[in-house]
Amino acid sequence: YSLGYLFYMKTKSKLYKLLGILALAIVILLTIFLLGKNDKILELNQTRILSDNLKLLETIDAGKKVSLIKEFNDSIYFVSWSKNNQGILFNLITNKENNLNVHTDSLLIGDYFIETDNNLVVHNKLKNELLKIDASGKLYNFEKMPIRISRLYKNDSIYLLTDWDKNYKFRRFKFNPINNNLKPLEFKDEYFNEYDLSGIALDGFFYDNEHFIVNLPFSLNCAYVFNKSFDLVKRVDFIYNKNEFNYQVTSQGQLVLDSNNIHPNLSGAVDSRKLYVLVDAGTTSKRGNKYYIDIYNIESGQYIESYEVEKFNGNKPSYFIIKENHMYLSFGEYVNKYQLLK
User: Fold this and answer.
1) In angstroms, rounded to a whole number, what is the distance separating the alpha carbons of residues 215 and 72?
2) Which of 137, 153, 226, 295 gives a 20 to 30 Å CA spacing to 103?
3) Which helix (H) or strand (E) holds 175?
4) Averaged confidence pLDDT in the chain
5) Which phi and psi angles does 90 have, rounded to 5°?
6) How far apart are the C-alpha atoms of 231 and 185, rounded to whole Å?
């Protein structure tokens, strides 16, 4: 071989080695970046007071993943958004099933309400409509919603609806389906205005007792309390600090939420005096096994205490209700019944 060819081969070998080292470095940096994503924990603004007044009484195997658990007329219901169970309302106590798919060709239960006469109102999220089904299981009415809604709350025959505008700003409405009257409702809060995507940041379910309605966002460190006329009463500030809620807009104009955003509030519940908030303390595998139920006084907003909750059978806690002195808390297909000790 010529000296030129040998020099070329040595140079080529060094180049391959250099490219290999660069490729390995990129892989390492990418791995560090990915492992570092969502490596966040909530920063507390006051000390969490842990209570041991939670006693496990029994575990109920529901046989399917339990979501959106609610109490109506002394019975406990839930839906399951898992495959083959969508569109079915389940009774946790009696094991009865109400297959609502017979009333429509496509159904995803976004929310549901059971009235005192056992009539059922279901929000079909796929078609943005309300299905009204009597106690015998007969569909007697359905109503197309006047706007594409995010969440809803039902008080007698009047609904509180939430959505967002084209700029993702939060909006809420009072809707009377009898006369199809949709009335915009004012919402003023300085803290709320700190979020560009307030409609998404404020997204969350409603919970209520005899006097109040609580809007619990998944992403904010606060909840909003309304009276039964849908007027804002107060904001309950939580014991952890504000989290970043960032986003990007692609060159095609599509909105993409930052994957580093965390959504600590998994779900909530209320009783006659207290608001219970199930909180994910962190989002990494190292920190993701600890959950807390933080308890606040609804009227004063004062923090009271917390229960510490761990995963059960490998499942994280998700939805729960407070029924008298008991808590029903779901973990995947299981529901644990706890006694709330005095």
Assistant:
1) 19
2) 153
3) strand 170-176
4) 87
5) -110, 145
6) 8
325 C-beta neighbours (distance < 10 Å), count = 11
Task: Return phi, psi of residue 5, to 5°.
Answer: -70, -40
> How many CB atoms are located within 10 Å of the residue 94 CB?
10
Q: What would the pLDDT profile of 290-319 be if each residue is shown by its tens digit?
A: 899 999 999 999 999 999 999 999 999 999
Whole-Å CA distances, 161 to 122, 164, 165, 205: 14, 10, 13, 11
Encoded tokens for 260: 């580093």
* Side chain identity at residue 25, one-letter code: A
Q: Find, among 281, 257, 269, the residue nearest to 200 by Cα.
A: 257
Give the percent of the chain with pLDDT over 90.
69
Q: Which two tokens stand for residue 113?
A: 């309400």
Say whether pLDDT at 135 is over 50: yes
Among 29, 44, 71, 35, which residue's Cα sits nearest to residue 281? Answer: 44
Q: Residue 32: in which H helix or E strand, if any?
A: helix 3-36
Count of residues for the chain?
A: 342
* 213 C-beta neighbours (distance < 10 Å), count: 21
Lowest-confidence segment of 27-41, 152-166, 322-336 by average pLDDT = 27-41
Higher pLDDT, 30 or 297: 297
CA 267/CA 95 separation, integer angstroms: 23
